Amino acid sequence: MQDVSIYRLNVGSCNGCDIEVLGALAPKFKLADVGAKVVGEPENANVLLVVGVVSAKMEGHLKQVYEKIKPPRIVVAAGSCALSSGVFDGSYNIPRLVDEVIPVNAYVPGCPPSPHAVADAIAEVVHAKLPTWCAPDDFRGVPEVDNEKCTGCGACVESCPARAIEIVDRGDERMVKFDHTKCIFCGFCEEVCPDDAIEMATRYNIATKNKGEAMSEAKLKLTNCLGCGAFFVSSKHLQSVSERILEKASEYGDFYDSIERFTMLCENCKTSIENTRSAKELLLKLDLKSKSS
Q1: Is there a common fold for 4-125 and 143-201+210-221?
Q2: Cα torsion for 185, 19, 50, 164, to the nearest 10°?
Q3: Which of 54, 101, 235, 267 could form a disulfide with 223 if both were Cys (CB 3.0 to 4.6 A apart)?
Q4: Topology adopted by domain 4-125
């Protein structure tokens, strides 16, 4: 594409993405070197760069602007709000996503996305090449999960303010799924992970043409409940719990077998009358042990 004319459209954001988009258009990121320029009217553009959530009132405006863009009408959606509605997902006033209103050629995750990522995405969709950038060592990018370290404990799911992480159990397999289109890159998941299985990546080239590929995941095998036989927890998580018990409460070593048995019961079986009675007896013994030691 010889002429790369970019029109920026904010359909409803906090302006965090706007700031990074403006940064991407600065001389430092070399978009001007590949013929890219910013225009003030959609009629003069062939690339539409969209940020923000599509509110009910802005949906019609987004369609109108898209129709005014010159062919081939390339659209880049940047930021978590544009990709998934971000933390506003489920709001009564946000009925549709950007790609449900107009076709999108490239997606740039982030809250906000880095200027590197925005510039890289624009260059890719117009088939241009930019210099390779090196992100700083403390750059906080998308969370990447180590499949070998992850135990599927769910601490990351509970801590995620953007609801970007979910646990899906299918048969004897558990998947811990990280949706980068929803991620706000806060780093809470990395902070709370007890097994150091999550790391905020330092790579910036995270733009994608397929939104379904903007994710990472860990897969684990589940083990059976001793009571009902249902799959409910990963063997790696049970091992991790056992190691912590021995490490933090070694004085209870004589009761280890009984404690381990309760960790291998699902929630339903743990709350049965018989197991509740046994658990109370065990807690009483542990309490007496702690007082005598």
Answers
A1: no
A2: 10
A3: 235
A4: Rossmann fold (3.40.50)
Q: What is the pLDDT of residues 42-59, one digit of tens each?
A: 999 999 999 999 999 999
Q: Where are the domains of the chain?
A: 4-125, 143-201+210-221, 225-292
Burial (Cβ within 10 Å: 0-12, 13-18, ≥19) of residue 253: exposed
143-201+210-221: CATH topology: Alpha-Beta Plaits (3.30.70)
Greater confidence, 100 or 249? 100
Here the tokens at position 189 are: 């998941």
Residue 35 amino acid letter:
G
What is the band of 2 on the pLDDT scale with cuts at 50, 70, 90?
A: low
Integer CA distances (angstroms), 188 to 123, 128, 199, 200, 284, in order:
31, 36, 10, 10, 36
Q: For the chain, give me the number of helices (H) and strands (E)?
A: 11, 11
Q: What are 104's two structure tokens?
A: 């999108």
